Amino acid sequence: MFGAIAHKYDLNNRLHSFWRDQAWRRKAVRIANVHPTDRVLDVACGTGDLTRAFLKANPAKVTGLDFTPEMLEIARTKVGGVEFIEGDAMNLPFEDASFDVCSIAFGIRNVADPAKALAEFRRVLAPGGRLIILEFTDPPLAPIRICNNIYTRRIMPITATLISRDKSGAYKYLPRSVQTFYTRDQMKSAIAAAGFENPAHTDLTLGVCACYRASVAP
């Protein structure tokens, strides 16, 4: 499904977020508080937008991982200086404590077993490491939530499908996946259950999405 929409993925992200998606990624990097010695892993990196934002923060190393070869092919043409690896978020091909920052943007809800993925993120993070998750959420204010639901459930699936010429049903699935995924509190509970400390979130753009942050004990 993601392979089918890879060629228009960036365009749809820009248009249907009203160009806010890049600002969300920059905010996630700031929340991660990247240090020059950090090793960063961007899981479900897609076409590499968040990976590139981390690279601009000048850490020691950035690695991007995604399950979809077509996405990685685009990422490799966009972003230099990054190792891109095909792999599964639930079975990361890395040693324990290999990274200082682990991120996933708009991907955790598409993992078959989010709890297993969170456990893997915890495993590959070194003591003092940080977890960063960007994910769509329901806005807390009712008028914003109603307008957002109309847009994401009725308008966006039609326009995004037309732009991508998708026949896989991806842009019908993606809004539904937001509706059925964790609430903010459920997400933070799942993060804590995976062994992370101090899970917290920051709402972005009136609560359309949230950036979650948690840490590993030093």
List the SSEs and their pairings.
Elements: H1 2-5, H2 9-16, H3 21-32, E1 39-43, H4 49-55, E2 61-66, H5 69-78, E3 83-86, E4 99-105, H6 114-124, E5 125-136, H7 142-164, H8 170-179, H9 184-193, E6 197-204, E7 209-215
Helix pairs in contact: 2-7, 3-4, 7-8
> Mind summarizing the main beta sheet?
7 strands, mixed
Q: Can you give the mean pLDDT?
A: 94
CA gyration radius, whole angstroms: 16 Å
Strand order of the largest sheet: 3-2-1-4-5-7-6
What is the level-2 CATH architecture name?
Answer: 3-Layer(aba) Sandwich
Helical amount:
40-55%
Write a brief structural summary.
This protein is an alpha/beta fold. The chain contains 9 helices and 7 strands.
